[in-house]
Design a protein that fits this description.
By secondary structure, this protein is mostly helical. It is built from four helices and no strands. Helix 2 (34-48) packs across helix 3. The longest helix has 15 residues, at 34-48.
Length: 113
């Protein structure tokens, strides 16, 4: 599905009924945060008891999630290069491997494609 102009692609809480219900309950609690603190205490107790999910959730909330390593490889096929780009690349490769006695004729781009 194509993106919609002017939209970042994130829902920002829309179409997430559970998240919205949590926000509503927290707003209804007003300044009285006893229930929220009770939930936080239960979360901490679960982590102390060795619950791996609770431990990871606490670490993610306090330290942030670890950065994901991303590797991107871009390859360009010779057919996507212009004749002058191909000639320049060949000359570059010849220069990197050439010794003083090697003298090859320059590349004529018009003869490449």
């Amino acid at each position: 599905m194509a993106g919609v102009k002017g939209r970042s692609g994130t829902n920002k809480g829309k179409d997430k009924p559970y998240a919205e219900a949590l926000r509503m309950e927290l707003a209804a609690a007003g300044d009285n945060r006893k229930e929220l603190r009770a939930i936080a205490r239960a979360h901490i107790d679960a982590a102390k008891a060795g619950d791996l999910q609770a431990i990871n959730a606490l670490a993610d909330r306090l330290d942030g999630k670890p950065a994901q390593e991303q590797t991107v490889t871009i390859e360009r096929r010779v057919t996507e290069l212009s004749d002058s780009e191909i000639a320049a690349r060949i000359a570059e490769l010849r220069g990197a491997g050439a010794s003083d006695g090697d003298a090859e004729a320059p590349i004529d781009p018009s003869q490449l494609n």
